[in-house]
Design goal:
Length: 414
């Protein structure tokens, strides 16, 4: 990455908290560029640093902008400015929220109350409703809007997928929202042939990846696996297969991977669990997926006849053992996104190892450390931001007994 890390943080912070929407646009573009080019560990560290910045003012700003209608009673007067800001904030948030630390910082414990969950549901409805309105306009031929599909459709979907991936509260809110209308009813339009044809090839592919990613998240999280099966995730997966090109290798652009492969991972993960398999039978998944059996097999590793396994499993017949590779790779799917890293800019420890947790800064709960030494080194720049977080916490009357000392940083385990 060019230039000094601290300077980059300051530059991004200035842009993303600016009163000028053009600055936020610049900040969002720079973030996305870094997301693609900086390397996962460096981008993760940057996202963590921005989340901790001045006690969290950047995230607050972006989320206030990105979820303009989080309170349905709130009236926004200047619609054009609000809409422009909305799109840019969503873009910045879309990149940042690939980091679990960022999502944790926002959807913290205070959201677990019934009121928090209700507001969280509004956020889901707001993001999904907004992007759907825009997608419908684009499909109806308002071609000038197609130029902004990145900001209007992709960015909110990216936020939604990342929030779901990293926040249990958000998944709970999705469950609530999908009680009235299923997940497929709410988002399936994005996978219809019409909109997929209208969008650029790249945007259509990104939508397929993000939708498959939502399905992976819901299926791989124990708290959402079963309700998701009852609330439209199977139709969503079938729709991803339906609009994916036959050759899945052509559908894998760069880092994103193939949507059909992700959907296969969902099925491979669910089938061995009897309660999930039971739901697949109840929703007649065999008939639903039969038209896509060729695509399913094409996206599976060559040694695996996925359809035969799927059919056998649901019909209660003896099935061939799944090659170990197919299972491992399906479980590796979730390793995408920005990993948790040590917050010290010169640390080379890499991502937090599976099964262990880096220590958190006890003051802000955001910064993470592989060692005491790196916490000490980071404290020189971090203390200002950490104290701001502490002040905020006191203001919000969220008294914490683990406040930071004036000079000596402390830490707690995750
Ligand atoms: Zn801190
Ligand atoms: Zn470290």
């Amino acid at each position: 990455m060019d230039g000094d890390f601290d300077q980059l943080v300051e530059r991004l912070a200035a842009m993303l908290t600016s009163a000028d929407p053009e600055d936020i646009k610049g900040g969002a573009s720079l973030l996305y560029e870094l997301f693609l080019s900086a390397g996962r560990d460096t981008f993760s560290r940057l996202a963590q640093e921005l989340a901790a910045y001045q006690g969290g003012i950047i995230l607050k700003r972006l989320l206030d902008g990105a979820v303009t209608q989080k309170d349905p009673e709130r009236q926004d007067t200047d619609l054009v400015t609000t809409e422009f800001l909305y799109a840019r904030c969503c873009q910045a948030m879309g990149s940042l929220s690939s980091s679990k630390v960022v999502v944790d910082r926002y959807f913290n414990k205070s959201w677990e109350s019934p009121e928090g969950r209700r507001v969280c549901k509004c956020i889901f409805l707001d993001l999904s409703g907004h992007l759907l309105t825009r997608a419908r306009e684009i499909e109806r031929g308002q071609s000038h809007l197609n130029l902004f599909a990145d900001a209007w459709v992709l960015a909110p979907l990216e936020c939604l997928a990342n929030f779901a991936a990293h926040s249990k509260v958000f998944r709970q809110a999705m469950k609530d929202a999908c009680e009235e209308r299923t997940l497929f009813d709410r988002l399936g339009f994005l996978l219809s042939a019409g909109i997929q044809r209208t969008l650029s090839r790249r945007n259509a592919q990104r939508i397929r990846v993000l939708m498959a990613d939502v399905a992976v998240t819901l299926a791989f999280s124990a708290d959402s696996q079963l309700w998701a099966l009852d609330r439209g995730v199977l139709k969503l997966i079938a729709a991803v297969y339906a609009v994916s090109p036959g050759d899945h290798r052509q559908d894998a652009l760069g880092w994103e991977g193939s949507p059909a492969f992700l959907c296969n991972a969902v099925l491979l993960h669910l089938l061995p669990t009897e309660s999930a398999a039971e739901k697949l039978r109840a929703h007649n998944a065999l008939d639903g997926f039969r038209p896509h059996r060729r695509k399913m097999n094409d996206a599976a590793i060559p040694e695996l006849d996925l359809w035969k396994y799927f059919e056998g499993k649901l019909q209660g017949r003896p099935v061939p053992t799944i090659p170990r590779d197919a299972q491992t790779r399906s479980l590796d799917v979730r390793a995408d996104g920005a990993p948790i890293v040590c917050s010290w800019k010169e640390c080379t420890a890499g991502p937090e190892p599976p099964g262990t947790a880096f220590k958190r800064c006890a003051g802000c709960q955001v910064s993470r450390y592989c060692s005491k030494e790196h916490q000490r080194l980071h404290w020189r720049t971090h203390k200002v931001h950490c104290r701001a977080a502490h002040v905020n916490q006191v203001k919000e009357k969220k008294a914490s007994s683990m406040g930071n000392g004036e000079a000596e940083p402390s830490s707690s385990t995750a």
